[in-house]
Amino acid sequence: MTESLHLNGLSVWSMTNRGDLYRQNGRYREAEILLRQALASAEQVFGPNDANVSVILNNLAVLYKYIGEFDEAERLYKRALATIERQAEVDDEKVATLYHNLGGLEHARCRYAEGEPLARRAVQLRERALGPNHVDVAADLAALAALLDGQGKHNESEPLLSARALHF
Q1: What is the spatial distance between Cα 91 and Cα 13, in angstroms, rounded to a whole number?
Q2: Contact 13/42 with Cβ under 8 angstroms?
Q3: Are 91 and 51 spatial neighbours (Cβ–Cβ below 8 Å)?
């Protein structure tokens, strides 16, 4: 990596991290500005189809979910997913995160049945990447359980939570 590319990459991640920090502190407008700038810079530095771009797309989508702009969040999550899936080596963990987030978006929309297959896919991918007893798999299972509960499928959701709780 050339020095210029390296410095530009550092600038992209600096903006991204600050944007995430602003989101976590409720400074949503400032977060949006920084994450949009980071996305534009990342597309220039890395190219629009680079895996690094998908990370920023995901972070921006998380922000839009927080502020209730669900359609924009969905568009960004799907673009991030398509970007990751185009990579030569697909990272199951990153793909699982995007499916988890898409499922969470459907939960926020009270569209539990639509979110269920997304959450199931997140569990499947994360288990394959990390093994069944990893804490991130437990988080995916909890998200799936919430979607099942939303549909009144309590007999399916309860075992997901109680079985996994024994491992942690």
Answers
A1: 20
A2: no
A3: yes
Residue 128 tokens, joined: 């394959």
pLDDT in tens, 51-67: 999 999 999 999 999 99
For 94-151, the DSSP string reads HHHHHHHHHHHHHHHTT-HHHHHHHHHHHHHHHHHHH-TT-HHHHHHHHHHHHHHHHT
pTM beyond 0.85:
yes
The DSSP secondary structure of 32-92, one letter per residue, reads HHHHHHHHHHHHHHH-TTSHHHHHHHHHHHHHHHHTT-HHHHHHHHHHHHHHHHTSSS--H
What is the C-alpha separation between 133 and 25, in angstroms, rounded?
A: 31
